């Protein structure tokens, strides 16, 4: 019962971050399941089955708040589903001993990317409004879907920053479109895992707990996406992912680091993480002072307020 409650809270927190950043539900939830000694394929399958419900609710909420570009959803989501099915069947064929550290390495890479990306650069806002090309979105979806299934998460960390970096779509619409298209990825990955490992290797109680927490948080996150500072959230969740997966790798047979080395690494990472979050908070406050943001019924977009002369 305690594990189910913990998973529900993780699902709620992960979806709040995912719905606000367009990433991190999968990597956060899968990281916890691996820490509970769940097999890599089973962990990813559990998360993707839960994501069928959370992404459906999240997508509907983002659509309701005007955060979705359906052309982007179609062009990135369909190839993403193909990549996710391929990634799920690939991961299902690896042994647990081989797959667990590989998945942790993928998650660590994604966590480092999220941490550094949001701490150093924040969210780009230039070139908003220019069209996104199909030849860019198709390969992006294919790669992101494959990484998402094999890493237990990655659709958001790969897709969201790539589209944001193009500067052609408003940040809230990038997040809403990525969250909505993830429904297709979750369905395809789940089918791949059911074919690859079967339902007997999936704990549906854990699926339900993650699903419940995520569905509660999804509409709240879609509303909060215009209010919360993504830069600070990105630094915070990136640090959690990095610290947890470094722990998994140091304890794995690949490294098997002694206790003194592990604790020293944890301490260094914790200090760096705290510094990253502090820097992000300071930069967010500095940016807000430089360009006050008006959020309300008059603007509703989180854009810098303007005055008419």
Short description:
This protein is mostly helical. Helices cover about 75% and strands about 0% of the residues. The longest helix has about 30 residues, at about 260-290.
Describe the protein:
- Pfam families: TauE.
- The chain crosses the membrane at residues 102-123, 183-200, 206-225, 261-281.
- It is a multi-pass membrane protein.
- It is found in: Cell membrane; Membrane.
- It comes from Micromonospora rifamycinica.
- The structure is a single chain.
- The protein is an all-alpha fold and 309 residues long.
- The chain has one domain.
- The protein is 76% helix and 0% strand.
- It is built from 11 helices and no strands.
- It has helices at residues 2-21, 25-35, 40-64, 70-92, 96-121, 134-151, 155-166, 171-196, 204-224, 230-251, 259-290.
Furnish the topology, listing elements before pairings:
Blueprint (H helix, E strand, L loop, with lengths): L1 H20 L3 H11 L4 H25 L5 H23 L3 H26 L12 H18 L3 H12 L4 H26 L7 H21 L5 H22 L7 H32 L19
Helix pairs in contact: 1-2, 1-8, 1-9, 2-3, 2-10, 3-8, 3-9, 4-6, 4-8, 5-10, 5-11, 6-7, 7-8, 10-11
